[in-house]
Amino acid sequence: MARINPKFTKELQSYGAFDTxxxxxxxxxxxVCSLSDEDNSFPRKMVRYSVLGLESxxxxxxxxxxxxxxxxxxxxxxxxxxxxELMMSLRRYLTSKYDWxxxxxxxxxxxxxxxxxxxxxxxxxxxxxxEQNFMPEHLLHYGHYFEMLAIGGVFLVILLPNxxxxxNMVIRKPKVKVPISAYFKSFSELIVHMFTQKRTxxxxxxQTRWFEHLILVIGYLSLLFTTVFLDWFxxxxxxxxxxxxxxxxIIFSVTFIFMIxxxxxxxxxxxxxxxxxxxxxxxxxxxGLSAFVVRLxxxxxxxxxxxxxxxxxxxxxxxxxxxxxxxxxxxxFLYRSFAMYFEKLKSLSAS
Amino acid sequence: MSEKxxxxxxxLVVGGGIxxxxxxxxxxxxxxxVLVVEKDLSLGGKMxxxxxxxxxxxxxxxxxxxxxxxxxxxxxxxxxFSAEAKKIDKLGEHNFExxxxxxxxxxxxxxxxxxxxxxxACPVSVIDxxxxxxxxxxxxxxxFSIASPRAAAIDITNCxxxxxCERACPTGCIDxxxxxxxxxxxxxxxxxATGFKLFDPLKIPRYGYGKYKNVITSMQMERQLAPxxxxxxxxxxxxxxxxDNIAYVLCTGSRDKSVGNPxxxxxxxxxxxxxxxxxxxxxxxxxxTIYYLHIRAFGKGFNEFYxxxxxxxxxxxxxxxxxxxxxxxxxxxxxxxDIEEGKVKEAEHDxxxxxxxxxxxxxxxxxxxxxxxxxxxxxxxxxxxxxASPSETNIDGVFVAxxxxxxxxxxxxILSAGAASAETTSYLRRAVL
Lengths: 351, 433
Prior knowledge:
The complex is a heterodimer.
Chain A: H1 8-13, H2 28-32, H3 44-52, H4 55-59, H5 63-66, H6 72-76, H7 83-98, H8 103-109, H9 111-131, H10 136-172, H11 180-185, H12 187-196, H13 207-228, H14 238-264, H15 275-299, H16 307-327, H17 332-350
Helix pairs in contact in A: 7-8, 8-9, 9-16, 10-16, 10-17, 12-17, 13-14, 14-15, 15-16
Chain B: E1 5-8, E2 11-14, H1 18-29, E3 34-37, E4 52-53, E5 58-59, H2 60-73, E6 77-80, E7 83-92, E8 95-102, H3 117-121, E9 125-127, E10 136-138, E11 140-141, E12 153-154, H4 164-168, E13 181-187, E14 189-192, E15 196-198, E16 215-217, H5 218-225, E17 245-252, H6 268-282, E18 287-292, H7 302-312, E19 315-318, E20 321-326, E21 332-338, E22 343-349, E23 351-356, E24 358-360, E25 398-400, H8 410-432
Helix pairs in contact in B: 1-2, 1-8, 5-6, 6-7
Pfam families (chain B): FAD_oxidored, Fer4_9, Pyr_redox_2
Cofactor (chain B): FAD
InterPro entries (chain B): 4Fe4S_Fe-S-bd, 4Fe4S_Fe_S_CS, FAD/NAD-bd_sf, FAD/NAD-binding_dom, HdrA-like
């Protein structure tokens, strides 16, 4: 027996803009969705869960991650209930449910909290730089250390436990019986979806969106690799040097396109931008741009006299790595691909 | 402009459909002189084109034609066809002045015997709007077989002025010298009965109307079912095959904010159920499936009619059609969520009928000079006091009848016309007292 919780809609609405109570259950959203199929019919199912406040059903649902937001459902909804935006809000809600620290929820729900967090980290960085007397060599050195530490730390302390929690909510709690061998058999699914996001191709008319997103992901991951493991800022290899430049240009140009889209609001998925969406694109843009300029300053030999530029980059980097990656929109990179993996596991257990 | 003819009547009725006709008849029977201004070539509006009516399954033409001929013969009623009230001015209480513009028919109605020789002679074929584009007609034509008046007309925009019809006409009633006429009409009261428009399904491209030939509107199906139907059987337009698996898509353009019409059209559920029953009769082997959101069978005898259709074998599936795709053989794939099961499904049908909704047709409000005629949020004419006097508009002396006030079925339109004529009478009586 399901327990109805009418207050839940309000709670969910703090994660985004939609009107589930307008829904009259015609199923148009599910029918126009090109990713919806007989095994996974959404988004109306999720609208029902949300209206009724069935939290445990929502927690164990993978559907929000199976939606890639083409926006057709919202554009054609006869009640203007914005089912696409509901799915987006559910992704934010689930992100905060998976997060054991509870910080995701706080940051998603309150813009003020997010701004305070960003400001505190900026103060921290400047304070640390002041401690180091703004010595360029020290700062670059510690900056590089921070990158490595942040990657390992955030992954082990936040993301790994959160993925485990996701597995717990989706597989263990609903008592889905998955044979151990399935975990290995389906592993390719995880990798493929993580690095290609090929499911986006199933969304109507979104080939460009998929392509832009793909090169952004590749650009981002390889810049991460180039700066952290190939030490881009200190490299002597001209190949690595150029590679880093190319990657950073890709990042800030694609994110620039995304930002323009969110300003123009021409497509359905860019109509409603939550602060977390803005933080994500703006910080990624700033990361790409500031990394590019820092390296340019190094090559022009003017960074020593303009250490403020590196401080900007470091501030952006720290905010990105400690707020957006563990608690913000960055996590969709993991949750989306793990959702495909868990979905495969569920289908194997059913058969 | 000085040569405009001045005509005087008690009541000006705008619209000669079933509501306008009924109101005119009631008023004329009370000895008021009535002028009916009709935009089209024939009386009877949309009803005269229908097959049968719900929930009694009476023949629509058999109800409409006697009524229409009574209206045309009534000594107190004058009808102007191809005419529009361009300007309506309230000069004072019981004192309206309207400027009526009449386009030429190029045929003297009184002399035409409807022999159809002009139709035979005319070399120009165009799409027949009275058969909902299912077949063609000539540029010299009789609108439809039960038109009233049953007289020819020349479609001048398509006419090549070859003169063949003129030569063929045995009575010499074709007259290309006719010109536009303008009248000044003085009336003591006005009844607006401008009816409705059907929703244009081209506004929902995902249903493929206009692109897939076997996707038709409910009005096109209505013509295929009517006694005066074009093919004398039911055929799908794509290849002339007799369909055996027909789908109805309810709420096409109704209750849909995304196309700008959030309200229920009130008649689509019932006319679709009616057509389902009629199809069971004309194509006994055919399957009929009605995809619905909620069946609204609220009138007298409606729910029984709905139940009856289920017993006859009409299938009902709850779920709005999301989109329609065409197969190579002309069949159509309908994608929907089966709400009972909560699963997205696809179904193949060989013909799809879009149950299009009722939209407002209130351009007449632009004709009112001075005090404008107020419309409601959906473009229908606003009723000042919907409960106590439903025919009153915001202008004293201007009354409204039928679907000009909002979607409604035929019995309600007749009731509304009755109310409008009663309220008009009471307004006219005040002038005398």
